[in-house]
UniProtKB/TrEMBL annotation:
Active site: 299 (proton acceptor)
GO CC, alphabetical: cytosol; nucleus
Lineage: Eukaryota, Metazoa, Ecdysozoa, Arthropoda, Hexapoda
Oligomeric form and interacting partners: Monomer.
CDD domains documented for this protein: adenosine_kinase
Provenance organism: Drosophila mauritiana (Fruit fly)
Cofactor(s) this protein cannot do without: Mg(2+)
InterPro entries noted in UniProt: Adenokinase (IPR001805), Carboh/pur_kinase_PfkB_CS (IPR002173), PfkB_dom (IPR011611), Ribokinase-like (IPR029056)
Gene: LOC117140651
Enzyme class, broadest EC rank: transferase
Pathway given in the UniProt record: Purine metabolism; AMP biosynthesis via salvage pathway; AMP from adenosine: step 1/1
Name of protein: Adenosine kinase
Amino acid sequence: MTSTLQEGILVGCGNPLLDISAVVPLNFLQKYSMNEDDAILAEDRHMPIYGELVEDYQAEFLAGGSVQNSLRIAQWILRQPRVAVFFGCVGEDRYAGILKEKAQAAGLDVHYQVKKDVPTGTCAVLITGTHRSLCANLAAANNFTIDHLEEPSNKALVDNAQYYYISGFFLTVNPPSIMQVAATAHAKQRPFLMNLSAPFISQFYMAPLLAALPYVDIIFGNEAEAQAFAEAQQWPSGDLREIGKRLVAMEKKNPARPRIAILTQGCDPVLLIQQDSVQEFPVTKLAVHEIVDTNGAGDAFVGGFLSQFVQGKSLDVCIRCGNYAAGHIIKNPGCTYSGEPEFVE
């Protein structure tokens, strides 16, 4: 058991989505012009996916949305409820009820903005072997507005937090909210963490990403996301260490706290890139039969990291806990966990 932490010490903003997850054949991806390990926003042509998964495949409904996933995992490891607060937008429907129930069961303190006329967002999780492809229909999640953060009770939660985490995915929804949280973190000299989230963020949302980046103390990403960022910046994109060094060196509002980049690369070592060093943290390789699906592994890594970071633990402990959490999640469907956490410093 960890020592007691301040309630609401960690605030996250993101897209609360209900994952509709199923094992599908490769030709299902081809039918919808998708590739293995894609992470995309749904277009009109993708809309039939959700009904098809429920009707024709053994679909599971799992609480999803990248930031909400990370915070649920952090809560699981911390074993103390209401350490983390989550903001996002849902509809007024059954799916919102499922999401809230799953989040609260994990100990997460959710403060959803509710839009009555729009359905709760969903994410199709298409599992092909050890790959997972994501197609998100943001729906209500796309309607988050900054006035929700400005309500006095919510503003107090943001002001009260000591740590802030927002996904790159949220850049597609409401950049002003991100900038407001970033400015709060900066004014209070508190860590602001972000995630590159998916290659399409760097490809299509670079302007709001670059606006937020000077505030970012720790940036997370995987190899595909880092390479997409490098390509969009017209950097050489072959060497992950070099990309990380350049990310760390980009403009920063608070130079007294140099930026840190943490880049994951599947079963290859995690890279911790700081101003003057690059460290590697090995990942325990799983046997193929142990892998249920890789959906949520990146979210779980961040959740494990955050669970230690909010306790003031060293970066190496944070990363080792991230690797522990990702390894656990891969052995379970979606971003779900089983049993008690067994991370040992």
